[in-house]
Amino acid sequence: MHKTTRTLLAGLIASAFIATPALAQQKLKIGFISTFSGPQGAIGEDMKNSVELALDHLKRKVGGLDTEVIYGDDQVKPDVGTQVADEMLKKHQVNFVAGIIWSNVMLAVAPRVTAAGTFMIGTNAGPNQLAGEGCNEMFFTTSWQNDQTPEAMGKYMQDKGIQDVYLMAPNYAAGKDMLTGFKRYYKGRVVDEVYTRLGQTDYQAEISQLRSKSPKAVFVFYPGGMGVQFLKQYSEAGLRGQFPLYSVYTVDELSIPAVKHAALGQLETRYWSQDLKNDANVKFVGDYRKKYGGKTPSYYGAQSYDGILLIDSAVRGVKGNLADKKGMIAVMRKADFASTRGKFKYGQNHFPIENFYLLKTVAGATPTSDPVMEIQQTVFKDHKDAYGTACKMKW
Amino acid sequence: MNFVLIAEQTLNGLQLGVMLFLLAAGLTLVFGIMNMVNLAHGALYMVGAYLTTFFYQQTGSYLLAVVLGLASTLVVGIVTELVALRTLYERDHLDQVLATFGLILFFNELVAILWGRAAIFSTIPDYLTGHVEFGVFRYPLYRLMIIGVGLAVAVLLWFVVSRTRLGMLIRAGASNRAMVAALGVNIRLLYTVVFGFGAALAGLAGLLAGPIYSVQPGMGELILIQVFVVIVIGGIGSIRGAFAGALIVGMVDTMGRAFLKPVLSTVLSPTAADAAGPALASMLIYLLMAVVLTFRPAGLFPAVR
Amino acid sequence: MSMTPRSWILVGLLALLAAVPPVAAYFDAPFYLDLLRRVMIFAIAASSLNLILGYGGMVSFGHAAYLGIGAYAVGVLGYYGIHNGCLQWGVAIGASALVALAIGAISVRTSGIYFIMITLAFTQMLYYLGISIEEYGGDDGMRLKLRSEFDFINLNNETAFYYLVLAILAFAILLVHRLVNSRFGRVIQAARSNEARTRAIGFSPYPYRLAAFVISGALCGLAGALLVNHTAYLTPEFMNWTRSGELMFMVILGGIATSAGPLLGAAALLLLEDVLQGWSLLPKEAVRDHWQLYLGVILVLVVLFARRGLAGLLPGKNE
Fold first, then answer.
1. A 53-112 residues with CB below 8 A of C?
2. Which of residues 79-108 of B touch A (CB under 8 A)?
3. pLDDT tens across B25-83, in order?
4. What domains can be seen in chain A, in order of their start residue?
5. C56 is in which domain, residue-wise?
């Protein structure tokens, strides 16, 4: 045993140290960071699937160059994220780093990547710190600024004249941002603002409090597993018919299979939906379903697909000359690619200026199929985020 | 704060408490008898939730799924005990923590391979949905059923531990292991039985939790730490302690989440209460544990040694 | 101190680490500098834990707290524009020692599983506290604008920073080694193996244990100060309970109560993570995304079959 253990260890250590030789740059390398292991890995999987689909659509040649995508797992830890990014920058010498689900990982990784003179293409997290003073010409995102989505819901509820709203979110930075964003456009009466423990599983106590306050409507932000739990318990407690529930980032294509009917009637705002009728999106959603056994992609996937297309447009625009970073920045600022959300523009801070829609969860096409989210109306046209004014970038 | 709300929150606390008790009972038995720290107890809870959901989808019968789910979690528990944990009883806590953490990673990934990483759909039959009217308020039937099952298990455990031969062995094993073995009892078999029993209880908690919580890899760890707090407050190895600890933690956590902010806002400014309330509510059960251990270093109901 | 074969191997390992920067520069592979610096920082933290866990028998399941406090000391002072390294690191060590004194005063009185749980409980409290302080970024954390500033060394020079970490690691290993071989250390170790006898020969173990707990916390706080400089990012995630678990595993994997153990364990765990994810020998999909499955199996196997950890595989007598 001892001897084999030792040999195995020697082998492991040796293989860790065999550096991939730095090839002459005729190949495009993209480092894609997301969460692939552990409970949150489902999001990473959807993102990776979409990246692979984008590569298929581009015949494995992003911007006409042979492409290698290196995937890195951040394990939802900022320091692991930076470690993975360092590996991509220094060992693999990637031209682009893309991906990243979590704000805290993004805040740790993005400055490191841009400081190394490499492009950072965010495909989910949009923390305000990077939209304002911390904006950077090497940083682009294909998603949104965190506040934009709740702002859309705030506006919708304000326009509808809904009063006495009860607000709930987990007690962490993104949770507070969401409620702040909501209140930026919602000016009606707020009954109460409740913050719950991050990662909480049981919401019955909060649901009882909520019922005792008899609000006219409820607005929540419960991403991932928390959303699954909250929705199930909300509908189990019989509040579905009693207090209309509005949410952001709580119901999506990843959680619908887990909550099914408990999500029916749910209203969310979002910049994208699987039923958006533009050629790029029809192709993306259709081919995704074909390639991955009928699964519907989520917005995480759509953003990641767009991220690869954005890179494609940049490399194509400089005719494959990866050294021409100024040129690529200029091209990317035009957002000249077939985005799944349709045509959009970039703001001063490289965050999209895009439409936001009201989505409703409705029954699927057949009685056995899962509910789907469909667009009801446009809430914002060309909505700009609130922090861009603090960005000093000029172009 | 009115009476109705307090009554409702008390039920909520009770329900959370019995859920914690189902997990704590198995954990504390394994602790008390084998002196084994089993971090993978939460993994068995997850396995129970997944298997029951799977059988319910396959058979369409909830009762059958519950029986199959419990039986198969029992089997998984026993196999785990035989393959990996058996040799760990004589080791120190450190080895046990390391190996069972390894098991957590293993089970989480195994479940992810079999059913995917995303949460899966888990539901209850129609006859368990709906509410019970209590005059002034109504309460979900399913949650009442959880309270009922939890209390029934508590009574059953009390009966087994204090009135049966197995219980006598369990009590004897917890207070003097060597003596029990010397008296000719097959201690290995006793261990396996106790571990399987604990696994089935964890599976029961998992299958009850499935429909209201989220069935996903890693669901066990979210609740595991609270369960550890329960058994430490109660006193390790004591079923009575686990029951008391579970109800106390369930109540304190529920009441803290419900009433801490409103109470704080009567003394603090609203913004200060907004900031302090949720933070304090998150820390409350840990504070409670620190206070209990400060005054009773072996918990509230230490098992007699 | 007399040099056993074990000590020579440890010195050899440190010398090997010292040789990494020129070699990495030669092969143009600067990434390994980052990777190994991270390994060494965790090795320092694991060494500090080894003092109480390995030698003192105090199984702290909350050691990540001091990693966090050290990191917050540097990050918060930096936030207010104080970048003086001596001050920052002094505060990191001092604050960690103070917190360890407070936590230790209560928890060292308990033992066994109660000790494990109470140290976990205090760390959970600090973790939730970190999440709820919005001023310092809450759970988002915040970026360290500048690395700590010293007169004698520039931490922005990656190689210089690397050697500083290496020097601190050597110091930490030596410190722990000296401590456990002193009278103080012998009381701690005696109390681990037989508390009653220690009392009988006239020592009350409590103050000794508490002192070890405080020293261990302070040393781990220093590792936290290094970690936040390494990552250039402050996050309450440093105090997550799984992080405490990882530190424990490094100590156990490497071999508890050995000088080389923490370094071997930190290296094995972190390199294994890196290797399992990027391994090209096995079908990639199967390994990459499910590397935790393999890590889990390896952990169980190490406990079952390599009882004294990696250090147990080294030649020479166990300490």
1. 71-73, 76-79, 82-83, 86-87, 89-91, 103-104, 107-108, 111-112
2. 108
3. 989 888 878 888 888 999 999 999 999 999 999 999 999 999 999 999 999 999 999 98
4. 27-144+278-343 (3.40.50.2300), 148-270+356-383 (3.40.50.2300)
5. 5-313
Q: Is residue C318 part of a domain?
A: no
User: Is residue A4 over pLDDT 70?
Assistant: no
Residue C223 resides in a domain = yes
Residue B138 has pLDDT above 50, yes or no: yes
Is residue C172 situated within a structural domain?
yes
In a domain, residue B107? The reply is yes
Q: Does some domain include residue B235?
A: no
The radius of gyration of chain C from alpha carbons, rounded to an integer in Å, stands at 19
CA–CA dist C36, C17 (Å, integer): 8
The structure tokens listed for A1 are: 């045993």
Which of A41, A206, A229 shows the shortest C-beta gap to B213?
A229
In tens, the pLDDT along C66-96 reads 999 999 999 999 999 999 999 999 999 999 9
- C-beta of residue C6 within 8 angstroms of C-beta of residue C260: yes
DSSP strand pairing (A217-220 vs A245-247): parallel
How do residues A105-116 score in pLDDT, each as one tens digit? 999 999 999 999
pLDDT for residue A239 is more than 50: yes
| Neighbouring chains to C with at least 3 Cβ pairs closer than 8 Å | A, B
Smallest CA–CA distance, residue C212 to chain A, in Å, is: 29
Cβ neighbours of C232 in A, within 8 Å: 82, 108, 111-112
Q: Do B102 and C256 touch (CB under 8 A)?
A: no
Hey, is the C-beta of B282 within 8 angstroms of any chain A C-beta? Answer: yes
CA separation for the pair C222, C218 (Å, rounded): 6
C253 contacts on B by Cβ (under 8 Å): 98
Range of the domain at B115: 9-217
For the four alpha carbons of C7, C10, C12 and C15, in that order, the dihedral sign comes to: negative
Residue B199 at interface with chain C, using a CB cutoff of 8 Å? no
- How far does the CA of residue A368 sit from the closest CA of chain B (Å)? 13
Q: Which one of B97, B279, B293 has the shortest CB-CB distance to C132?
A: B279
Please report the pLDDT score of residue C242 as a whole number: 83
Nearest CA in chain C to B237: C113
Inside any domain, residue C163? yes
Amino acid at C56: G
Residue A3 has pLDDT above 50, yes or no: no
Cβ-defined contact of B293 to C290 (cutoff 8 Å): no
CB proximity B9 to A under 8 Å: yes
Residue from the list B4, B131, B143 with its beta carbon closest to the beta carbon of A204: B143
Indicate the number of domains in chain C.
Answer: 1
Domain count within chain B? 1
The CATH number assigned to the domain holding C123 equals 1.10.3470
Q: Do B142 and A236 touch (CB under 8 A)?
A: yes
Q: Tell me the pLDDT tens digit for each residue of A308-344.
A: 999 999 999 999 999 999 999 999 999 999 999 999 9
Is there a domain that residue B207 lies in?
yes
Taken as a whole, chain A contains a residue count of: 395
Question: CB-based contacts of C255: which residues, under 8 Å, 6+ apart?
Answer: C261, C264, C265, C308, C309, C310, C311, C312, C318
Q: Which of A35, A97, A104 to mutate to test the interface with C (most CBs of C within 10 A)?
A: A104
More confident residue, A202 or A52: A52
